[in-house]
Amino acid sequence: AQKITQTQPGMFVQEKEAVTLDCTYDTSDQSYGLFWYKQPSSGEMIFLIYQGSYDEQNATEGRYSLNFQKARKSANLVISASQLGDSAMYFCAMREGGFKTIFGAGTRLFVKA
Amino acid sequence: DTGVSQDPRHKITKRGQNVTFRCDPISEHNRLYWYRQTLGQGPEFLTYFQNEAQLEKSRLLSDRFSAERPKGSFSTLEIQRTEQGDSAMYLCASTMTTGKTNYGYTFGSGTRLTVV
User: Which end of chain B has the smaller Cβ count within 10 Å, N or C?
Assistant: First the structure.
C-alpha cells in the first residue's frame, strides 16, 4: 500500500509568490516523522524541514513551513516568496519506528520569472 | 567535513557483470542508508546500517545485492550479475541518532548505473 502520496506531478508558481505542495500519508503508528526534501537538477537530495507526529506547532525553516494536519494525515509544504532557485523536485517522506524513511513520488516545481 | 561522498559518480557496465559502489558518510553519523532512484520516482529504500550492523534490508532487494559497512565507517554496495533493470541512481545517505529524532538525511551525489 502506498504510504506517501503526492498528487501533483508538476506545479507552476510565479516568482515571489507562495506555493503549496501537497502530501498525504498513511500510517498506523502513533510516533512518526515527516520530512520534505528538495532535489535540484544537479541530483543531490537536500533536507528542508521536519515535523514530528507529536509536535503541536507547525514546523518552519526560513521560507519553508509545513502545514501539518494530523487528523487528515496531510503534511503540505508551503514555500513563501518563491525564487527561481526553488525550481526542483520536492519529495515528501515519512519515517516510522525511528528507522528507515520512505519517499513519495515527488512534485516538480517550476518557478516563473 | 565534506559531506557524504559516493564513488564512482557514473558506472556503465555490461549485463552480467558485477559492480561495486562506495559510500563515505559524514564521520560522526552512525546510520547509513542505501536508496535506489529511477527516473521520475522517489528514492526506494534498499538497506541501512547502524554502525557496522546491517539492521534492515528491503524485501524487494534481490539476493544479487549485498552491502557491507566494515568497522562502521564507509559502506559498499555490490550488485552481482547486473541486469538492465538495475539501471538507476544509487543514493547513499547518513544521519546521526541521539536523543533527538528530527535529523534529516544527508545524501551523497549518487552513483548513476547504466547496464547495457
Answer: N
Q: How far apart are CA B51 and CA B31, in angstroms?
A: 6
Q: Which of B31, B37, B92 to mutate to test the interface with A (most CBs of A within 10 A)?
A: B37
Q: Is A55 helix (H, G, I), strand (E, B) or coil?
A: coil
Task: Confirm if B41 and A105 have CB atoms less than 8 A apart.
Answer: yes
- Residue in B41, B102, B105 closest to A101 by CB: B105
Question: Helix, strand, coil % (nearest 5) of chain A?
Answer: 5, 50, 45
Identity at B53, one-letter amino acid code: A
Contact A6, A104 (CB under 8 A): yes
User: Measured between beta carbons, which residues in chain B are less than 8 angstroms from residue A102?
Assistant: 45
Find, among B57, B108, B116, B35, the residue nearest to A45 by Cα. B108
Q: Cβ contacts (< 8 Å) between B105 and chain A: which residues?
A: 37, 45, 47, 101
Per-residue pLDDT tens over the stretch B69-80: 988 889 999 999
**Percentage of residues of chain B with pLDDT beyond 90:** 70
The pLDDT value given to residue A1: 55
- The reply to whether omega before B8 is within 30° of 0 (cis) is yes
Give Cα separations from B62 to A26, B31, B46 (angstroms). 26, 22, 10
**Tell me, what's the pLDDT at B86?**
96
